[in-house]
User: Fold this.
Amino acid sequence: MNEVTKPAAGSAADGIRAQMETLAKAARDASAVLATATTEAKNSALKAAAAAIRARAAEIQAANDEDMAKAPNDLKPSFRDRLKLTDERIEAMATGLEEVAALPDPVGRELARWQRPNGLDIARVATPLGVIGIIYESRPNVTADAGGLCLKAGNAAILRGGSESIRSSRAIAGCLQDGLRAAGLPEASIQMVPTTDRAAVGAMLTMPDYIDIIVPRGGKGLIARVQRESRVPVMAHLDGICHVYVDAAADAAMARDIVLNAKMRRTGICGAAETLLVDRPVVESHLPAIISALDEAGCEVRGDDTVQSLDTRVTAATDADWETEYLDAIISVKVVDGVEGAIRHIETHGSHHTEAIVTEDAATAERFLSGLDSAIVLWNASTQYADGGEFGMGAEIGISTGKLHARGPVGAEQLTSYKYVVRGNGQTRP
Assistant:
């Protein structure tokens, strides 16, 4: 992945720093224009970018084919799936941009308004964040999602894609800039970092004068480095250790289907379930069918002693399994005592990302939903719905598990801050 790209040394690193400063200054200038751009102009750019993606689909696919051909032979299937583009995925990028265009403009929203006894009229109004740096790895569709969402929210975007997807990402970024030109907006509103050298990441992390927020999307190594080194505020999640809890009151068939989808629909996304928790009273009635479905789908099952005793295909889980984001066809399974046991396990071993409960008992479901401090909690639905597009946001720039600013899927609305607008009629403070 892009974190193994060696950093430049000496004068080469200085040259990259200078190059990044030029790029960041251009983004800062563009952000001033975008902050007051009309809704019509931003939407026009998004629609034109979608049209460009469709018109240049063959070019994008050819670039992706080259990326796939040059990908390391030992790249895990789940990561290879992240990197791969298909006709359907290219069309989904175009459709996503159009869906973002169709959303209400998040900039200028009046979030609250009140009057003071002295006659002052005070409003809290949504504003763009400014310049957003997005650092990501193998998923080239992030280029379209991130660029489009930043534009909708009036922000300039600096996109630093991974070395393994650089050709795909450049082709997609070119379509976004086509859209900007067509709408008369600055091309520097969405810029692709021209190098895969790690020195460019280091530069982005130390430019608080030009970049307002950093959003990393990728593996644990990348995100840990960004959180450790950045002098710019970071919006991210470190791990996606997502859980499904099958309660004693769960419908057996529903539980099987949800667990199978949550784990195996796409194993390499952050919303994929990594741990299954099963209420003790339904271990024998519900769990065997779930294990069989997972095994038939090619998933390795690791379990505690009780789970192993049910099926010889289950291997022993270690303590490390409860805190591992596999991003692969592996799941750990543990028996717990009721919803309280599930909550304790998740709060001890989870990453505050996404958790799901399967149950027909509304009171138990509400206890689970209210008792967990995770960014997304679901009742009778797959954790794979942890996605901004599925939330009606058109797309997402990532999932945030932090407690400041945005939490959960980060769409256009979450890429805004606010300011206070105070209107008076001559008031002076005594």
